[in-house]
Amino acid sequence: MRRILITLVILVVCVIAGSVIWIFGGRQISLFIDRFGTVETASARINSIIYEGSGTGGILHINDLALSLNAADPTCSTPNIGSTKDGQLALSAGGKVFAFGPPRSEAENLATVPTASDDASIAFRRSVLSWPTPFDLNFMSGHSPSWKRHLYYQVRWHKQNGARLEMLWRYEQYFYSGDGWASDFMTLEGSTGLIRVDIRL
User: Fold this and answer.
1) Domain residues for 66?
2) Neighbouring C-alpha atoms within 13 Å toward the C-beta of 121
3) Kind plus residue range of the DSSP H or E element containing 3
4) Do 149 and 131 form a contact (C-beta atoms < 8 A)?
5) CA spacing 20 to 30 A to 126: which of 26, 90, 147, 188?
């Protein structure tokens, strides 16, 4: 009997400790797990690229998504957008330049479309693990999320000449009881936004 009670006490303590860690460290645990893999929910071919900005940072419109080019991760440099010597719209980062394609003359901002031979797509992914947020309070609306998770937008662009571009953005998504998962563009300073740009030539 005594062994059973000790076992139950240890089990209860472990459950309580696990719950506390999940509540207060859930975001970091989720980020750690995301390093090894995330869940792809959808993907689409990139049909258009439009750049809105002054050349450094700014907004990159991919299909109907508006994604900030301001780097959120200190290991990720803010990319530049401009034109190559032969007039193509291009992105540069880490001393490398990736050409998207010839600009569209009718566009108000810098814009282009992938050539038919390019394999250009954007994937929508989410974290494997969501975390509870019982202490999040919204005094303005009184409506606070009970869960959160990370969402990722991953651009993969491969050209026939072997050039490759990968870009990754991370945002937060909130879950509200009764309403479900809300907007997936919630931000957190120092954690969300553009987190990776990788160009291989």
Assistant:
1) 2-200
2) 9
3) helix 2-34
4) yes
5) 90
Q: Which residues pair with 62 in a beta bridge?
A: 49, 65
CA distances from 10 to 3, 6, 14, 32, 55 (A): 11, 6, 6, 27, 59
User: For residues 194 and 78, what is the distance between their CA atoms, to the nearest angstrom?
Assistant: 8
Q: What is the pTM of this model?
A: 0.83
**3-56 residue pLDDT tens:** 776 667 667 666 565 555 556 667 888 888 888 989 999 999 999 999 988 888
Tell me the two tokens of residue 89: 């719209």
- Collect all residues with Cβ–Cβ distance below 8 Å to 119 and sequence separation of at least 6: 156, 157, 158, 159
Higher per-residue pLDDT: 193 or 178: 193
Q: How wide is the angle at C-alpha 155 spanned by C-alphas 151 and 159, nearest 5°?
A: 165
**Beta pairing partners, 164:** 158, 200
**Would you tell me how many other CB atoms lie within 10 Å of the CB of residue 35?**
7
Q: How far apart are CA 157 and CA 119, in angstroms?
A: 6
CB 114 within 8 Å of CB 120: yes
* Average pLDDT of the residues in 103-120: 82
Tokens matching residue 173: 């998504």
Q: Residue 184, SS3?
A: coil
For the ranges 57-66, 106-115, 182-191, the lowest mean pLDDT is seen at 182-191
The domain tally of the chain equals: 1
